[in-house]
Amino acid sequence: xxxxxxxxxxxCSMGLEELLSQExxxxxxxxxxxxxxxxxxxxxxxxALKVILYSRLASRVFKYLFTFEVINEKDYYLExxxxxxxxxxxxxxxxxxxTIFGDLPGEREDFRNSQFANLKLKDAIVDWFRHxxxxxxxxxxxxxxxxFLARIDRGDEKPYQVTLMYDxxxxxxxxxxxxxxxxEAPVKENVAAGILKMINWNPAEEGLTDxxxxxxxxxxxxxxxxxxxxxxxxxxxxxxxxxxxxxxTFLNYPWFTQDKFLWDNFNKLLAExxxxxxxxxxxxxxKKGFIVGNDISEMALISAxxxxxxxKLEGIIELTKRDALELYPPTSKSVFLCxxxxxxxxxxxxxEKLKALYKGLGDHWxxxxxxxxxxxxxxxxxxxxxxxxKTSKRHILFNxxxxxxxxxxxxx
Length: 412
Known about the structure:
Layout: E1 2-3, E2 7-11, H1 17-26, E3 31-35, E4 38-42, H2 45-54, E5 60-70, H3 73-80, E6 95-101, H4 114-133, E7 146-154, E8 160-167, H5 189-198, E9 207-210, H6 217-226, H7 233-241, H8 254-257, H9 260-285, E10 291-294, H10 298-310, E11 318-320, E12 334-338, H11 350-368, E13 373-378, E14 393-399, E15 402-410
Parallel strand pairs: 6-7, 9-10, 9-12, 10-11, 12-13
Antiparallel strand pairs: 1-5, 2-4, 2-5, 3-4, 5-8, 7-8, 13-15, 14-15
Helix pairs in contact: 2-9, 3-4, 5-6, 7-9
C-alpha cells in the first residue's frame, strides 16, 4: 500500500485540461500531468489550498491518500481495513463515499457495480472504527464532514488498483455563490471562464458583449477576470463573517486542522482574497460599460440582474434587452460572444427558425462588427455550418454531458 503526501488531482470539464494545467503551474505547483477530465499535480499543501481559492477552471480538488492493488471485492474490503482510518477522520464525524470506475477490463467477475464497491468500502471503515474505537461513524449524504472518492482501475501486479482520495471541496468550485437564479441549460461558471481564456479575451484592450446572456454567467466571469477577483470571493466573505459555515470540506479534515502551518497559510490566503476583491471592485467602478449582457427575454434578464447584484457587480455590468441582431460594439475593439439555443428538442418548423438565427448572427457580424472578433459556443454542430463565416479557430469543449464547439471568428 502506497501512502501519498503531496499529490493532488483537480477535475474540470473536458476540453479545459491544458488551460487548467497552466493555471495550476502559475499558482505554484511543482509538476502537472493532464489526463482526461482533469490534472494531476504535485505541490505543497498550501498551494493546493491556493488552487481551491484561485482556480477559475477547476471543478473540484482531491488529495491522494492511498493506493493499493486487490484481487477481488473481498480482498478490497480486507485491504481497506488495514488503513488507519482515525488519521483521516474522527468517529464522531459523518462521511460520504463516492466510487468511480476508471480503466477496467470489459470482461470481469468483480467490480461490476460501483454501488456494491462503495458498500464494501463503507463496511471496511465502519468495521475498523467498531474494532478500534468501540463505536462507528455515520454516513452523511447531504452535508458530510468528510468526503472520500475511491477510483478503481486495472492494476499492474493484481487485477485491480484502488486509489483513495479526499474531496477537499464539498460543493463544486464552479458554484461560486452568485448564481441565485438560473435559466434553462446554463453554462457552468468554470466553463464560461474557460471559454473566455480560450478566446484570449483581453479586457485591457477589448470590450465584451454577451448577446444572449441568460443568467449572466459569462459577463460575471468576465468582470471577475478583468479585475483579478478570485472566484472564491463570495465564499471567503461568508466564511469570514461566520466560520460556522464550512465552505470547503477540508476545514473538517485532520490533515488540515492538525497542521498549524497550514492553518496560518490558509488565513493569509483569506486575507489576500479579501484584499484582491476590494481592489478589483474598486477598479471595476472606474471602468463601466465595457461588459454588456443582452437578452431578448425579460425572464432571463431578471435572473441576470439578481445574479449580477449578488456578485456585487451591479452598475458595472450593463444589461440590455434587444434582439441579438441589433447589437453594436460597446467599445472601439470588442468581442461579440454568443451561446445561442442548441435546439435539442425541436418541434415542427423550429429548425428553420434556428437556422435563420445562426445565419443572422453571421450576417450581422459581417456588417456591424467589422474589425472586431466574435465567438460562438454551441452544442449543435450542424448549425455552425449555417453561420456562413470561416472560423479562425475551433475548440472541443463539454458543457456537462453535451459535446460542444467553441468557434472563433476574426471579422474583417
